[in-house]
């Protein structure tokens, strides 16, 4: 007989948790209750307190006030790591799998079976196979972890957590690096694991995923608990209102009602027969004052095309022309000099120097313009940094603040500031709103609208539908080629079907 939810004991419960760092309250009297066998979404803007709550739920930090309980019993002491591993695990957006080790070695790292003081490799491989088979994870135990797909590495991390005895798994942005088919498979696996008694806390900025996979949702805002409710009882507009404190949905300038460009508008960017490792014969033109979207599955080649335009990747054949002049292939300084600005895909590895300040990051591409011999004074850098803080609404104590201390949304605004610093004629944005909250997404997409009105050309390379609504037309890539073009005003289901290689209108 099923126990009524109201009488069931929560898998995990945080009760009145407060955590401060100096004068800043990262959490202020926050509570959350996750019930057995459910997927419970945790959502909120960057800086809302999600990461701090996760660190408390996983025993990495101790709350200043309040407590955490597992199955109605007080959480273990912070120092007792084994006891925490038996209760909870977190699969982070940035994988903790060691790529150069095998799957088996990753599953049993620091607890390898031994015989006479030596690792018993046969037993470890046998145990790994048994573990993978039990949880229906189809990877080879002797495969090198770095050769697995992102999806497979996530499942190995989940299996490792389950092998400790944990039946409560926190998934931190699990779909950030997956394409449509991989996301569907992951969601099916989550559903199967739920039926086997595993409980999930699901953290995502993709609100549609909350409605697809989760049964309950908790919203944090400004370090406080705003609401916990069944997903079915909280429509999307109300969820966004809870996250932002403002009524209405995502305020994004939709290109559907935009006037057409005048005849004879000059072409800013032209690709002719561009070929690379995962794309072939890509050709299109982008005019001044136009916004084009380039979309497709993660493996479609869209990111590689964008990186070739920005000089980050060298194409094998074809030509890129800016204002009619051929661009040297694979040459970032040349791309910058020809008026191309870029927001790269990975802000942590390609977009920012995390140990440097807002001002230093924002002015990195224009140091030669701020000072003689490319050496700018701190005062000039800070003045430029402050200008960008004001222009983009970057929430930071000041231009000299180190960017590692900013929320994800504000870090992405700093990357945007660096791309705009050279006053580019062509702006290439690769996944510009990935991993940022609703309000940061609005601010970043407002920049697209603003620079378009200034007569600049913008290429938005993204799988996010909200990003693509700002575009005058959207090009869909499928298996390395441009397969379709949609004018502004497209229907979601038509675009999604095209991305996945499906025609909804075949005779």
TrEMBL record:
DNA-binding in keyword set: no
Phylogenetic placement of the source organism: Bacteria, Pseudomonadati, Pseudomonadota, Betaproteobacteria, Burkholderiales
Short name of any one Pfam family annotated for the protein: ABC_tran
Keywords assigned: ATP-binding, Cell inner membrane, Cell membrane, Membrane, Nucleotide-binding, Repeat, Sugar transport, Transport
GO molecular function: ATP binding; ATP hydrolysis activity
Descriptive protein name: Monosaccharide ABC transporter ATP-binding protein, CUT2 family
Biological source species: Paraburkholderia megapolitana
All copies of domain ABC transporter, residue ranges: 12-247, 250-504
InterPro entries according to UniProt: AAA+_ATPase (IPR003593), ABC_carbohydrate_import_ATPase (IPR050107), ABC_transporter-like_ATP-bd (IPR003439), ABC_transporter-like_CS (IPR017871), P-loop_NTPase (IPR027417)
């Amino acid at each position: 007989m099923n126990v009524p939810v109201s009488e069931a004991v929560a898998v995990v419960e945080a009760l009145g948790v407060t955590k401060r760092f100096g004068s800043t309250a990262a959490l202020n009297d926050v509570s959350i209750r996750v019930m057995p066998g459910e997927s419970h979404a945790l959502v909120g803007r960057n800086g809302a307190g999600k990461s701090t709550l996760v660190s408390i739920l996983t025993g990495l930090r101790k709350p200043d006030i309040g407590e955490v309980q597992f199955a109605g019993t007080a959480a273990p002491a912070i120092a007792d790591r084994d006891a925490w591993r038996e209760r909870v695990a977190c699969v982070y957006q940035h994988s903790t799998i060691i790529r150069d080790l095998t799957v088996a070695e990753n599953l049993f790292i620091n607890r390898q079976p031994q015989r006479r003081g030596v690792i018993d490799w046969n037993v470890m491989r046998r145990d790994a196979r048994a573990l993978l088979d039990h949880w229906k994870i189809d990877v080879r135990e002797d495969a090198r972890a770095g050769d697995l797909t992102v999806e497979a590495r996530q499942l190995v991390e989940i299996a490792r957590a389950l092998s400790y005895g944990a039946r409560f798994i926190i998934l931190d942005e699990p779909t950030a690096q997956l394409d449509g088919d991989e996301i569907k498979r992951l969601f099916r696996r989550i559903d199967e694991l739920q039926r086997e008694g595993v409980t999930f806390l699901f953290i995502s900025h993709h609100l549609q995923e909350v409605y697809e996979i989760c049964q309950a949702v908790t919203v944090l805002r400004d370090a406080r608990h705003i609401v916990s409710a069944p997903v079915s009882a909280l429509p999307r507009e109300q969820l966004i209102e809870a996250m932002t404190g403002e009524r209405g949905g995502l305020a994004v300038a939709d290109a559907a009602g935009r006037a057409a460009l005048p005849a004879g508008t000059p072409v800013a960017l032209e690709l002719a027969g561009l070929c690379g490792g995962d794309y072939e014969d890509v050709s299109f033109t982008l005019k001044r004052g136009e916004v084009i979207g380039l979309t497709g599955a993660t493996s479609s080649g869209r990111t590689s095309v964008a990186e070739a335009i920005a000089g980050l990747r060298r194409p094998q054949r074809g030509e890129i022309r800016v204002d009619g002049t051929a661009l040297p292939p694979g040459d970032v300084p040349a791309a910058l000099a020809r008026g191309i600005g870029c927001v790269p895909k990975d802000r942590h590895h390609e977009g920012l120097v995390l140990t440097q300040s807002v001002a230093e990051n924002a002015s990195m591409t224009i140091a030669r313009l701020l000072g003689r011999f490319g050496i700018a004074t701190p005062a000039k850098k800070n003045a430029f940094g402050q200008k960008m803080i004001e222009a983009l609404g970057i929430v930071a104590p000041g231009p000299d603040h180190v960017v590692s201390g900013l929320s994800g949304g504000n870090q992405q605004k700093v990357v945007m500031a660096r791309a705009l610093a050279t006053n580019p004629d062509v702006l290439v944005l690769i996944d510009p709103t990935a991993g940022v909250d609703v309000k940061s997404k609005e601010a970043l997409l407002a920049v697209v609208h603003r620079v378009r009105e200034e007569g600049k050309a913008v290429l938005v390379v993204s799988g996010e539908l909200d990003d693509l609504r700002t575009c005058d037309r959207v090009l869909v890539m499928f298996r390395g080629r441009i397969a379709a073009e949609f004018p502004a005003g497209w229907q979601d289901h038509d675009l999604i079907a095209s991305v996945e290689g499906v025609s909804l209108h075949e005779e």
